[in-house]
Specification:
By secondary structure, the protein is mainly alpha-helical. It has three domains: 37 residues, no CATH class; 37 residues; 31 residues, no CATH class. It has four helices and no strands. Helix 3 runs antiparallel to helix 4. The chain starts with a helix and ends with a helix.
Length: 110
Amino acid sequence: MRTRLTAIVSLALLGIATTSAAQQGVPPGPHMLWNGGAWMIIGPLMMLVFLAAAVAVIVLVARWLGGGRRDDASGRREAARTALDILEERYARGEIDRQEFEERRSVLGR
């Protein structure tokens, strides 16, 4: 697999270099990549680097604007819980009795 990929890349580079040299009227030779043909390789590579950087920036900004951390495995954010919500949950679980629940709820209501 690696040998096949190397051969394909080598042929592609040879084709790019030969085409570049032929367009400039330079006979093919060892100097052909430095006579303007190198930009045909560097240009697309720089475009890919720029696109990767742009995508990374967009993803980071989207995460930053999305705010907060994700609370569960599905990636959904849990709604902000108020003190009253927590108090009701404790009462529902039986951690506090009705009298304590009412006292604390009246304090939170102020």
